[in-house]
Design brief:
By secondary structure, this protein is an all-alpha fold. The protein has helices at about 5-15, 15-40, 45-65, 70-94. Helix 2 (about 15-40) runs antiparallel to helix 3 and helix 3 packs antiparallel against helix 4 (about 70-94). The longest helix has 24 residues, at about 15-40. The protein is elongated and about 45 Å long.
Length: about 90
């Protein structure tokens, strides 16, 4: 089993606790990503990055609130976290 499969399996078995933590983590990282992007201006490129970050965080939160399958929630969580971290790193390097 890969690490991703192990994490997904654990997430599936403990969906209630991880969903609450996932909402907090996704929202906090998303807000840091938005802040770091807007720190450098408010042009079209910055607004597109803000839009991507907000959409992914909102999709993850909506998947939890509409009681989707745990696999989908986990994939949206990892995507949201990965994109937010990449946006933060890109903003720090710019």
């Amino acid at each position: 089993m890969t690490t991703f499969s192990k994490l997904q399996n654990d997430f599936t078995h403990n969906i209630m606790g991880y969903s609450a933590l996932g909402i907090i983590l996704s929202t906090c990282l998303g807000s840091v990503a938005v802040f770091s992007v807007l720190h450098f201006g408010h042009g079209l490129a910055q607004m597109l990055l803000v839009m991507v970050s907000v959409i992914l965080c909102s999709l993850h939160n909506a998947a939890i609130l509409t009681v989707q399958k745990p696999e989908l929630i986990f994939k949206l969580l990892t995507t949201s976290i990965a994109v937010s971290v990449l946006i933060i790193i890109g903003s720090l390097l710019a």
